[in-house]
Amino acid sequence: MEILYENLLLLFQNGGWQRVVMWLIGGLLIYLAIKKDMEPTLLLPMGFGAIIVNIPAIYDGALSTLFSAGISNELFPLILFIGIGAMIDFGPILSNPKLMIFGAAAQFGIFFTFSLASLFFELPEAASIGIIGAADGPTAIVVAQKLLGNASQITGAIMVAAYSYMALVPVIQPPIIKLLTTKKERMIRMPYKPKNVSKTTRILFPIIITIIAGLIAPESIDLLGFLMFGNLIRECGVLNSLSETAQKVLANLITIFLGITVATQMTADKFLQPATLLILGLGLFAFIFDTAGGILVAKLINVFSKKNKINPMIGAAGISAFPMSGRVVHKMGLKEDPSNFLLMHSIGVNVSGQIASVIAGGLILSFML
Amino acid sequence: MDIFGKFSVERFVSSLQYMWKGMLAIFIVIGVIILVTVLMNSFFSKLAAKKQDKENNA
User: Considering only CB atoms, which chain A residues are within 8 Å of B19?
Assistant: First the structure.
């Protein structure tokens, strides 16, 4: 009874109300996960974790141990990348490699936001905020942890923004796509002519990409290496049970721990700051300009190509949010013309966005470290 | 954390170099990957065609 009284008292002293606000934010994340089906695998554990770490006592329990064991050394996001790599089929970009240009173009928002954020934040912080635009939670965690470490006040906001915006792709992207394209452009048809991709190419691709990226942007080697290792397990054909485990059991296990552990950064003193709102705003900005970058490059290519015009909407799928972004573009294409199937192109661009965002993360680390 | 106290246009100007360097670097890396993929596709499709020809002749 005495402990209950002391803890209730803490809620009304020294800004204890902020903890209640964090419980409400945790509740909101759980609501969005369950009712709106927004990235439930991450928002639900994060919401619950936010409630735990804001119980009015100095929190230093198992979640802090998990944070030290799996996030502060970037282990969880890297292991998750093995699972993601095992899930990805690089077939569409191996069949039409030119699609990868849009993956590169759609990283514009990251670098643009990096510059914009530097108006308010030191460069390593600004760089970590820019990477929210990668639309890739694990990459955002790795970059923020490497550049800012555990003591930073803004890591929690960056992680929450990265995962929340991934879930908001179907809400954020369509208005930007509509704003930047005409109806005629959205109706451009792109016939899909798949080429036969040999098994040797599929096996060599992850190995060669790792070597190329490792030579040009060595800081990306952890991220890209784990992603490509997962893909090699998938494509080699002799490790099917490992591939299945990586895709399902391993990815699910890490996701459970990742979400609830990220929440250790959502303590009231760190999260309820004006900087958090600014970071959320800048993260949105990064997403918008990533989308715009991909679309505008597609439109630019169309200016110079006489035939085989590109539907500029597929450029928007160059962000890393896979497969949401590819599906959003496909659905928008169908809405304009029910017989126009853009799925294979948009998924191809989306897959290339995964590779490009990891490389962008590596480049940012190379610049800052 | 006083974000507005840290406002700096100089820092913004100095960060612009990372924007062009970053975009240039990413297009170079992706360009090399595209090139290698095209070469791999072309090499292995020719190899497969040769193999097919041999099988047909035999």
Answer: 111-112, 114-115
